[in-house]
Design a protein that fits this description.
It holds the Pfam family Aldo_ket_red. By secondary structure, the protein is an alpha/beta fold. 37% of the residues lie in helices and 13% in strands. Bound molecules: NADP nicotinamide-adenine-dinucleotide phosphate.
Length: 323
């Protein structure tokens, strides 16, 4: 596995998103043994960056990752997230970037992950009622105390990233980025490159859609998040299948799979980018990690870069994003 740097944090350039093992997608929580095998196989294949969040489950995904990593903590980079659970209130979902909430949240995550430090601690969504300077001030204290090594922001606007970076250097920004979610290219990526901040694309497989494995929502569990996602709805889904067909065409050319092509395209966008494809299955993990060895030609990259824009918003409610 090739390595890259997110600011000063060294990571294998393909990480593993652990969310779907415990939350949001079909089959979550049904086979923890296979999820743990997937995490172990990832480590054996050179994956170092493991991504979770306190709100995945909530909590059970951090516990699962902590259990899986217990014997090999020092080999990995643990990334988790805070800010979308109201620890000062009743523990339900909501945005709280206050210093007090940060301090309560980090203690819970450290305990569930079974570690004395979190390598990359992201604010999951920006809190419009708390100045980013207060949140980052609390994070800087956690760095000084050794409880976190660095911090990141997820779905933050360029101005917020700049304000945060002025208080304490940001290690990485995590935002949705893939062949059907190109919006970070306009302002986010140039801002990160100017400031020397790493970029972690989430949902790099388009929440599974770009792999070609989901051609209708009929196969998804009744509570699967994607059933209510605009891009998976009716006419939007039908239109978006043209994107999958373009990815499949390149996959056929190289004798690979659409998932590998979608990841190889992201990896070709820069050496400051570490996507975190999610899977809870060993076979798919092996397939995805093999994208590290794929170099697409300029013609293939151009063809992929010109796929049609996705039909439908990334989320049913876009309000909490890009703030
Ligand atoms: N910061 C944020 O707000 C945010 C939001 C969403 C996600 N994330 C993070 O990003 C990670 C990845 O994103 P994601 O899980 O949403 O989407 P993704 O990586 O784009 O796609 C994951 C989906 O694709 C399926 N899949 C994976 N590899 C496959 C393959 N080779 N062939 C066919 N299907 C395949 C998975 O199913 P199986 O698991 O059944 O294999 C899963 O349903 C998450 O785990 C999470 O850590 C962060």
């Amino acid at each position: 596995m090739k390595h890259i740097s997110l600011a000063s944090l060294d990571v294998g350039r393909i990480g593993l998103g652990c969310m779907g093992m415990s939350a949001f997608y079909s089959g979550a929580g049904t086979d923890d043994a296979e999820s743990i095998r997937t995490i172990h196989r990832a480590m054996d294949l050179g994956v170092t960056l493991f991504d979770t969040a306190e709100m995945y489950g909530p909590y059970i995904n951090e516990e699962l990752l902590g259990k899986a990593l217990a014997e090999r903590r020092d080999e990995v980079v643990i990334a988790t997230k805070f800010g979308t659970i109201l620890h000062r209130g009743d523990g339900t979902r909501g945005l709280d970037g206050s210093a007090e909430n940060v301090r309560i949240a980090v203690e819970g995550s450290l305990k569930r992950l079974g570690t004395d430090r979190i390598d990359l601690y992201y604010q999951h969504r920006m809190d419009p009622d708390t100045p980013i300077e207060e949140t980052v001030g609390a994070l800087a204290e956690l760095v000084n105390e050794g409880k976190i090594i660095g911090y990141g922001l997820s779905e933050a606007a360029p101005d917020t990233i700049r304000r945060a970076h002025a208080v304490h250097p940001v290690t990485a920004v995590q935002t949705e980025y893939s062949l059907w979610s190109r919006d970070p290219e306009a302002e986010i990526l140039p801002t990160l490159r100017e400031l020397g901040i790493g970029f972690v694309p989430y949902s790099p497989l388009g929440r599974g859609f770009l792999t070609g494995a989901i051609r209708s929502v009929d196969s998804l569990d009744a509570d699967d998040f994607r059933r209510a996602n605009p891009r998976f709805e009716g006419d939007n889904l039908e239109a978006n299948l043209a994107i999958v067909d373009s990815v499949q065409a390149v996959a056929d050319e190289i004798g690979g799979t659409p998932a590998q092509v979608a990841l190889a395209w992201i990896l070709a966008q820069g050496d400051d980018i570490a996507p975190i494809p999610g899977t809870k299955r060993v076979a798919r993990l092996e397939e995805n990690v093999a994208a590290d060895a794929i170099d697409l030609t300029d013609a293939q990259l151009d063809a992929l870069s010109s796929v049609p824009s996705a039909a439908g918003d990334r989320y049913a409610d876009m309000t909490p994003l890009n703030r």
